[in-house]
Design a protein that fits this description.
By secondary structure, this protein is α/β, with parallel strands linked by helices. The protein has 31 helices and 21 strands. A hairpin with a 3-residue loop joins strand 17 and strand 18. The two termini are about 55 Å apart. About 10% of the residues have low confidence. The structure holds a DNA duplex (15 and 10 nucleotides).
Length: about 800
Amino acid sequence: MRVTDIHADLTDPQREAVTHTEGPLLVLAAAGSGKTRVITRRIAHLVGMGVPPWSICALTFTNKAAGEMRERVESILVGDGGDERRVRGLTVMTFHALSARLLRRFAEVSGIAGLKPDYTIYDSADQTATVKRVLKSLDLSTKNWPPGSVKASISKAKNDLMDADAFAAHAMDFATKQVARIYAGYEQSLRRANAIDFDDLLLMTAKLLRDNAEVRRHCQERWQYLMIDEYQDTNHAQFLIASLLAGEGEPGGVGPNICVVGDPDQAIYSWRGADISNILEFEDRYPKAKVIALGENFRSTEPILHAADILIKKNTSRKDKPLFTKRPGGRKPEVVLCRDERHEAELVADWFQKHAEDGIPWRDMAVFYRTNALSRVIEDALRSNTIPYTIARGTAFYEREEVKHALAYLRVVANQADDVSLGRIINMPTRGIGKTTLIRVADEAASRRCPVYEVMCNINDVGGLSARAISAIQKFTAMMSQWTGAGTFLGASVPTSLHELVERVVRESGLERHFDARAATSGLASDAERLDNLAELVSSAKDFEDEFDVTADPAADLPDFDLDDSPFDIEDGTSADEPPPPPLLAMLRAYLESVALVADADTVDPDNGAVTLMTLHAAKGLEFPAVAMIGLEQGMLPHSRAADSQADLEEERRLAFVGITRAMRDLVMTSARYRTIRGITERMIPSQFIDELGSGAISFSDQAGGDDYGRDNWDERQTNRSTTTTPVSRVRPGSTAASLPVGCTVRHPQFGVGTVLSIQSGVNARAQVKFKQVGIKTLILEYARLTRVDE
DNA sequence: CACAGGGAAATTTTT
DNA sequence: TTTCCCTGTG
C-alpha cells in the first residue's frame, strides 16, 4: 500500500504532520483538530518506515494520555493478532514517569544530590510536613510563614531550575532571604531522607542530562525520534529535558527529530511554571523547524466552536489563528442565570435528565467547574435525582487517612531513611512511642546527621529513655525487619509477593485492628469504609503485580538498554534474554512510584455509565457530547486570584475556552446569583466571559426569578453578613455607551428586559431604560450590568 | 501518654 | 462548612 493510501483518511495538513519525520516540527493543533490522532499515526508511520520502536519516545503530561496513546498505537500497529514486537520498547510516558526512571537508573552513578535508587517521591502533603518541620527547626512561626506559600515559592524556584544556593543569591529583601533559609533546610531534609518532590523529578533529570555527557549521549542515541504532547504546558525544566533529549541533530543539518504538538490557546498551567514562550519560540530554538497548523475542528458543532472562537479572540496577547469546522448545524450554547448553587445543580440535573430521555447515555455527559469545592452541590443533586456520576479525582483514594498510613509503612519498608513517612506511622496505631520519646530520638538523629530509623535500630545507645519506650521501639524495628528480612529482602519471614507484603503490613502493623476497633465503637459507616479501603489497597497491589509482569513497560527496559548490546534483535525481534522476574523491592518501588504519580485526570473512565464531574483543568484533552459548565461568575471563573493581572485573566479565559471546546453537541453554562462558599452566602456577578460571548453566540435565559428573590433576601443577607466578609467582588467595567445604541433591547439582572431610551456618555455614562416590568430607570452604565439582547 | 473537646483558620487549578 | 491545632483532663 502506498503512503498516500494509508493516510487517505487524514486531511492534508494532518498527513503532512504525520509524514514529516525528519528534523524539528512544530504542530500548532487547535482544539479538536485531531492532535492525538496525528501523534499516534506519526508513531505508527515511523515504525512502518522501519524505525525501531525503542528509538521512539513520546512524552505526555498525564498517565491517561500516555496510556491512550500507547493503546492507539498498538491497535494500529499490532491490531488483533498482529506482531507485538512492532511496539516493543516504545517509550510513551509522562515527563514525570520518565524522569523517575532515569533518576532511578542514573542518579546514583552520576552522583546527583547523593540520590540512591530507593528514593521516595514526596507528595504535596509530605512537602508541607517537611516545610513545617523546617520552620520549627528554624524557630519560625507558621503564622508568618504559611507552609503553603513557602512550598509554592520553593516549587516555583525549582521549576526555574533555581536551587537553594541560587535562590539565596537572588534574595534581596528580608522575606525572600528567610524563604531561602527555609528552602535550604527543606532541601537538606529531603536529601537526608533520600526523598525528592515532584519538582525535583524534573529539575534533577534536567541537571542530570545537562551535566552528565555520558547519560545524555546514551539517551540521545537511544531516542532518535522525540515527540511531545501539550507542549504549551511545558515548564522550563521540561523544556530543558526535551531539548537535551533531542540534542542538536547532525552538524549542519536541519536539527534533531523533535516534534512538538500544542496549542497556545490551551495553555492553562502557568501557575505551575509552564512557560508559553516554549512553544511560541520553538522556531527560534530550531530555526529550520517546519511549522504545520491544524485549524479544522472535528469535534464540536459550529455554534459551540463559534462561541469558543469569539471568547478566545478577547485575549490580546495572542497570535490569531483559524478555528473552523466544515460541518454546519447544531444548537447554540445555553447560558442560564440561576438563583443559587442548589438551583444551579437542579437545573444541571434536569438538563442531563432531558438528554437521557433523548437516548444519550450518562457517560456522554460531564460537568466542569473551576474549583473542586463546587462539585459538592452537584453531587447532591445528581444523587437525589438518581443520576449515576463519577468524580475525576484519582488522588482521592491515596489521600485517605488509612491508605496514607498503609503507604507510609510501605515507603519505610522501601526506604528506611524516609523520616516523614516514619513519623506518620511510628505511633500509628498507638504503640507507646510518645512525644517525648520521639523528640529524644529525633534530636539524636539530628546530631548524628543520620536517619531516625537508624537511631531506632541502635536504641540502646541512646540515653534518657524509659525501659518501656526502648522496648516499644525495639518491637517496632523488629516488625519492620520481619518484612524486609533485615533489609536483605531474603529469608523465610519476607513476603513473596507485593500483595502479600501489603496485606501483612496492613494486618501486622495493627492498622486493620485499629480501624476495626474504631468502626466498632463509633458505628460510623465512614469508619467501616476505611477497612474496605485497606482491602482495596491490597487488591490494587495485586492488580499492579499482575500488570507488572505482562506490561510492555518501556522503562523496564531502561536499566538493560545499551546500544552495543541491545536486548532486542531487529531481525527477529526476540529479546536476547528474558529479564528475571523483578524482586520484591523493585516491584515495591515501581508500585509506590505509580501511586505517587497518579493524577486526577487519570481516573476519567468514559466506559462506565456515569456522568463525569471534574475541574476544568482535568478536562483538557477530553471530549463529551453534552457538557455543563457551572459557576460562571466573577471570582469563580475568572477566579478571584487571577483578578490583578492581565496575564492571569487571559489564562482564565483560556480555561473557559478549553471547557467550551470539550463540548461536542450540547453545552450549557450556568451562573448563580447567590453562592454559599464555606458557610457564607455571597451575591455573585455573572462572569465577564458571558458578556464577552455576546448575545449573538449564546441563548440566554434568566431563571433566577426576577427581582423578588434578590430584593427579599438582599437586606437580610446584608445584615447577616459578618463584618469581615468582603462585599461583592469589585465592579468590573460595565457596558459602554458605544455598545448600547438608543432603541436596542437590554437585560438588567434585577429589572428584566427593557429598551434604551437615551444615553448620556461621559465619565459616568448613564442610560434611561424603559423596563417592561418596572418602568423607566436611569442607570449608570459602569455599575448596571446591562446585557444587550438582540431581537 | 492518649484522647477529647473547643477554638481558630482556611479554601485554585496538579504532576 | 470542614479541617487543623492546641490545651486540658483522665
